[in-house]
Amino acid sequence: MLFSVLRNGNLNGVEKLLYLLILVFCVLLSLTVHELCHGLAAYWMGDKTAKSSGRLSMNPLHHLEPMGALCLFLFGFGWARPVPVNPWNFKHKKAGMVLTSLAGPISNFLLAFVAQLGTVLLFQVLYTTGEVTVGYRLAEVCHMICYYLVVINLGLGIFNLIPVPPLDGSKVLTAILPARLYFWLMQWERYGFIILIILINLPFFNSFLYSCENVILSFYNLLIGVLL
What we know:
This protein is mainly α and 228 residues long. It has one domain (2-227). The protein has ten helices and no strands. Helix 5 (93-128) runs antiparallel to helix 6 (134-159) and helix 6 (134-159) packs across helix 10. The radius of gyration is 19 Å and the shape is globular. The mean pLDDT is 85.
């Protein structure tokens, strides 16, 4: 995503700077919502570890993981710094772990849907408004924010469902696996980041993620068409 902005010959220097600022805002907002929802879900399930660690916050600096944020800037999918969770505090340990792990991706899918709805509505405003005014420019900026929020949140939600540590999908998987398979999977946890970096650089993997995004986006558009 970052490279597409920088290489866009239709944008001047000021417009590229504006697009980059929008991109930064959308990345930080998406990561923050993702991790905040993890923490809130854990808190509602009986674990106050995230709250005592100061992670129930909308401050993006509390949740930022440099490598994951960089991947989100460059490729459209990444991760944040995991919220600390103690499953022994959950009233129902397995259910608590599954719900807490899924809370982040679900929040991204919901945010992406709201942003796609905003994209459709704002496009209609821009399409029907012929005169370029201050209001038109403001709607244009809001449209770009919604567009990036859709792309980033779909990528973040789908990517984090992959069952590779430390992503959320692995936590869901380990919560439902038998003990023998759980301990086997945990042996690979130390190699999680290496596996992720390899996956990110595989062309078929990127194609798979983008295909998943397109399927979900098509469903959103269908649902929005029904609602509107």
